[in-house]
Amino acid sequence: METTQQILDNCSGRMQKGIDFLEEALLNLRAGKASVNVLNGIAVDYYGSSMGIDKVASVNVPDARTILIRPWEKNMIAPIEKAIINSNIGLTPSNNGEEIRLVIPLLTEERRKQIVKQVKEEAEKARVSIRNSRRDCVESFKKSQKEGMPEDEAKNGEAESQKLYDKFSKKIDEVVAAKEKEIMTV
Questions:
Q1: Residues 126 and 81 grouped into a single domain
Q2: What is the pLDDT of residues 142-152, one digit of tens each?
Q3: How many domains does the chain have?
Q4: CATH number of 138's domain
Q5: What pTM was computed for the model?
Q6: Band of the pLDDT at 31, cuts 50, 70, 90?
């Protein structure tokens, strides 16, 4: 039989993973500012193996609207360009034979609203995740009660799991509000 603290720690850990996943998903949303995170998940064919762009080139942000990619080998320019085009991130690469430049266009009001909608969809996924964690936590307390945990301790544990849910739900709201502000700021 698990103790109340073990059940709550497990529940809290799972809820934190939901928040971490949300923050990671929001990093990949383009908010009109250059960020190397836009290139996350784009794989380049490097001598028969698939690697991330950051593994075959230096990637940096010289200014707020430009991403600069300098391949360590000049023959990697074409495969990197092809990978960016095929990734559908909405950016057109341009190269001068030595480096690839991605210019982040200014976002229109309509595009900003679309991105905010995506943010809210990601937030809802995170909310579902923490709700499921709370449900599993409550079920663990009910199971532990059948295995001998005192009823009042189980009920207190269920109440604590609700408090955890409220805390993490508020954290989701804060993360979403910050991202919305970032997106809507021109």
A1: no
A2: 999 899 889 89
A3: 2
A4: 1.10.132.20
A5: 0.70
A6: low
